[in-house]
């Protein structure tokens, strides 16, 4: 794959998002977003599974201001592999308004981990989605988890719901806070009372160190971005899932735009409308304050809480 040739069929991020009608609480954090390159400054990793369009830190921070967020958590995207330079650069130039989640290999030195910490990194991401990454042995991941736990960092895990049973023992042995990306990608056609989603809720219920991002309705939805049946909201088939998680675990949920939305081929969400999704899954001001401010601040800026 050439460095700059975008993966065919892959949509670019939404250029002129609407202004959300929902007013975010003061200090709201977009706790899951990425930067891509720019490729000529921060080359994409040779082992990547896709080549994205560019999505720079300046464009990310313009979106932050447009939507009304105060801060970002920039999560290492798989197209950059374990080369964290673009994410670190974004954190360092944010004036303290961004923290990061890195991808690291076992070979990383303690000094390099400390450098990441100084740049604002507070977690590592372990990815188990087969279309995105090659397999990394679990003993390597556990060793990394042990080292980063000592820095007070957490582990972000990304996996598909069908893989949770097989990954359960590994996840439950992680020695630090564990944050699940996008609710563990439930198959929403199975329904909120499915065995599959019940297992995810049990995972959170039985393990107080497990948090979840209630993000990415645009990836999980089958009904899509159009409001249907007189409903006001887009992505309505995802609402019961996210709402269940927010209401049962109000102190362990995070929300993020997922901008610039890697790997979307059927539609690209208007980020303003994604923000308008929030009050459907966190219907009270108290839940919104926890989801958007108190929880991400506790995890990423504990020194300010
Ligand atoms: O579902 C995805 O394709 C996806 C990919 C990435 C990444 O490539 O890092 O991150 C995400 O949060 C979601």
UniProtKB/TrEMBL annotation:
It holds the Pfam family Amidohydro_2. Residues 29-300 form the Amidohydrolase-related domain. This is Amidohydrolase family protein. PANTHER family: BARREL METAL-DEPENDENT HYDROLASE, PUTATIVE (AFU_ORTHOLOGUE AFUA_1G16240)-RELATED (PTHR35563:SF2). It comes from the Bacteria.
């Amino acid at each position: 794959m050439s460095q700059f040739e975008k993966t065919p069929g892959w949509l670019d991020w939404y250029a002129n998002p609407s202004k959300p009608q929902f007013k975010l609480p003061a200090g709201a954090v977009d706790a899951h977003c990425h930067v891509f390159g720019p490729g000529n400054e921060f080359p994409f990793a040779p082992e990547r599974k896709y080549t994205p369009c560019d999505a720079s830190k300046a464009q990310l921070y313009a979106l932050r201001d447009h939507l009304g967020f105060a801060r970002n958590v920039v999560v290492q995207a798989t197209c950059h592999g374990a080369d964290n330079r673009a994410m670190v650069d974004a954190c360092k130039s944010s004036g303290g308004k961004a923290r990061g989640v890195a991808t690291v290999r076992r070979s990383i030195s303690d000094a390099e981990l400390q450098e990441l910490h100084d740049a604002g990194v507070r977690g590592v991401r372990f990815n188990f989605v087969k279309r995105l990454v090659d397999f990394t042995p679990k003993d390597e991941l556990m060793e990394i988890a042990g080292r980063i736990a000592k820095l007070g960092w957490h582990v972000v895990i990304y996996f598909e719901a069908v893989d949770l049973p097989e990954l359960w023992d590994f996840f439950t042995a992680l020695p630090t806070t564990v944050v699940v990306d996008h609710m563990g990608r439930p198959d929403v056609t199975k329904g909120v009372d499915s065995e599959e989603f019940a297992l995810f809720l049990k995972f959170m219920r039985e393990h107080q160190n497990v948090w979840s991002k209630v993000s990415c309705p645009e990836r999980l939805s089958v009904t899509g971005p159009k409001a249907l049946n007189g409903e006001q909201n887009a992505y309505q088939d995802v609402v019961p899932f996210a709402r269940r998680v927010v209401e049962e675990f109000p102190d362990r949920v995070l929300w993020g735009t997922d901008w610039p939305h890697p790997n979307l081929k059927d539609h690209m969400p208007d980020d303003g409308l994604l923000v308008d999704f929030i009050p459907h899954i966190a219907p009270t001001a108290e839940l919104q304050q926890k989801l958007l401010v108190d929880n991400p601040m506790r995890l990423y800026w504990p020194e300010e809480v």
